[in-house]
Design goal:
Distance between the termini: 30 Å
Structural class: mainly alpha
Strand order of the largest sheet: 1-2
Largest sheet: 2 strands, antiparallel
Radius of gyration: 32 Å
Number of domains: 2
């Protein structure tokens, strides 16, 4: 598989409320606009109009009393509300989405927030998590030593945040460090370069742990399918025994059907071992995430 052909997706903080997460997932262009500097307009009335309304209310109070002023105030508020309701629904929704995206700008990571190598790492992590969460052994609750549905999205979020931070630091580093450093002083910058490389290696190791887990789960899935298919065959053993009895005299001797039982136990043993290996990989990942 060519991992460079993979493209990462938007990563959300899994602790976001469900409604907020749906809004952000459905607003990729808005999220990009916020990253580019877009911000919602303050929800404050036009100051000239506000002063005019206040003056009118005070004048009404002076001329006709508090009751008329209250009625006029209610009328103005009602007209303002009707004006808001009469506005274009699409425009109102766009403003709402912009407010949500701006308010939670630190709770999502866009592919555009990452440089090339970091995008590749995030894409690999997302692919590994998809494989684990979509596996039959996970769906049937056989990987019960790790809460995949909670731990894996949280791990991808942590990776996304750290990859975005590494990308920002790299870009800043490239702006600060001159390109034409004389050879005799280039070593001064080496420790900073090494920090960036070490951070990248650390994040790559976390992604590789996810991929190791996914690899073990894939093997467990394959053995699990064989194990379930063997279970179906076990139920049909009497049919095979009848066929064997009816054809025993028609050809060379066949191995006894009882031999299937021992083979079935061997498949079951391999299945149990594959599940144990997947669980150990998941436990290692959990310990790594807690570090």
């Amino acid at each position: 598989m060519n991992t460079r052909a993979l493209h990462p997706r938007l990563v959300l903080d899994p602790s976001l409320p469900a409604e907020t997460a749906r809004t952000l997932l459905g607003s990729p262009e808005t999220l990009r606009a916020v990253r580019a500097g877009a911000a919602p307009r303050p929800l404050t009335p036009n100051p000239v109009l506000l002063c005019a309304v206040i003056f009118l209310l005070l004048l009404t109070l002076m001329l006709t009393g508090p009751w008329a002023m209250t009625m006029l105030g209610a009328l103005v508020a009602g007209l303002y509300g009707l004006r808001a309701l009469a506005a274009d629904p699409k425009a109102r929704e766009a403003r709402r989405r912009l407010r949500v995206a701006h308010r939670h700008a630190d709770r999502y990571v866009l592919p555009e927030d990452l440089d090339g190598s970091c995008r590749e790492l995030l894409a690999r992590a997302q692919r590994a998590v998809e494989e684990v969460l979509g596996s039959a052994v996970n769906g049937d609750g056989l990987l019960d030593t790790i809460a995949n549905a909670v731990t894996l999205p949280s791990e991808v979020w942590r990776l996304g945040v750290r990859l975005a931070d590494l990308t920002r630091t790299r870009r800043e580093h490239e702006r600060i460090v001159p390109q034409d450093v004389p050879a005799d002083i280039a070593g001064v910058f080496t420790p900073y370069d090494e920090v960036l490389e070490r951070a990248h290696r650390s994040l790559a190791a976390r992604v590789e742990s996810l991929e190791d887990y996914a690899r073990e789960v894939r093997r467990a899935d394959a053995v699990y399918r064989a194990y379930r298919q063997l279970g179906v065959l076990r139920e049909r053993t009497p049919h095979y025994e009848r066929l064997l009895a009816e054809t025993a005299e028609d050809g060379p001797a066949l191995p006894p059907i009882e031999g299937l039982s021992g083979q079935a136990h061997e498949v079951e043993r391999v299945f149990r071992e594959s599940i144990d290996e997947a669980r150990r990989a998941g436990t290692h990942l959990l310990l790594l995430s807690a570090a």
